[in-house]
């Protein structure tokens, strides 16, 4: 186990490890709540799955939480994404690019798809919220 | 000129080369021809003398793999004066592709000249089920692993049947979707197995 941990430490950038060891905003919100948007995405290539939820008040993202099952980069990407969009209004949050996440976490090219997954999750959550308001 | 054929090798070679197909592919006597065949790219199914279908006899594949590897291991070849070690690597690549349910499906799609890019998963219900199972595994550990493993393996069998049917009906979309789901299930199975072993 210790050996495995030290391997992780060597392979990942300190920023990723920081988020992996103490991920911020892990959790879930009530899916049935009208002010909550849920995004569920998955990457077949690596089998990672991600759920990201937002709670919106007055057009602003008041809360953002996630649950990710996958590698350290996927967990760090979704955790950083929730942090990033918290407090933003929906249009600004929609502008989040996977490259913002990747450069902040210093993801290597082989892990870029983790940041894309997080971007997809954010967009899916916002889309889900908007759809709920139309109904 | 045939000095490299030590008695031991010739004996093993004969055992393996009973099949004319293999004689052509790997027998050192047919070396030049074999080289040309390999370079042209050999169909993995033909390599392992199997019918080109999605569902395969994995035990048969494994047995052949072991036998061929024994005879064509680089050390064996080298000790017989053959310096081209490609055989062994090629056998491994083919074996790994054919033995993995997802890779085999993608390979077969490729043989049909179909797109093998990953299917963007939009079956939310399926993904939610995956998340909830991964969560259960994380929370309950080995206790839940057995049950989840059983469920996953059952689901995998269903999907494999669905993929096989897809190939028979040439329903490429259905195949791609099922292969994509199968990738997630394999990951879940891996995690459950790890926990069970702890």
UniProtKB/TrEMBL annotation, chain A:
The keyword Iron applies. One of its GO terms (biological process) is iron-sulfur cluster assembly. Pfam families: NifU_N (PF01592). Residues 11-133 form the NIF system FeS cluster assembly NifU N-terminal domain. InterPro entries: ISCU, NIF_FeS_clus_asmbl_NifU_N. Keywords: Iron, Metal-binding. One of its GO terms (molecular function) is iron ion binding. The keyword Oxidoreductase does not apply. GO terms for cellular component: mitochondrion. Belongs to the NifU family. This is NIF system FeS cluster assembly NifU N-terminal domain-containing protein.
TrEMBL record, chain B:
It holds the Pfam family HSCB_C. Keywords: Chaperone. Gene3D superfamilies: DnaJ domain, HscB, C-terminal domain. GO terms for molecular function: ATPase activator activity; protein-folding chaperone binding. GO terms for cellular component: mitochondrion. Coiled coil: none annotated. GO terms for biological process: [2Fe-2S] cluster assembly; protein complex oligomerization. Residues 123-193 form the Co-chaperone HscB C-terminal oligomerisation domain. It comes from the Eukaryota. PANTHER family: IRON-SULFUR CLUSTER CO-CHAPERONE PROTEIN HSCB. Belongs to the HscB family. This is Co-chaperone HscB C-terminal oligomerisation domain-containing protein.
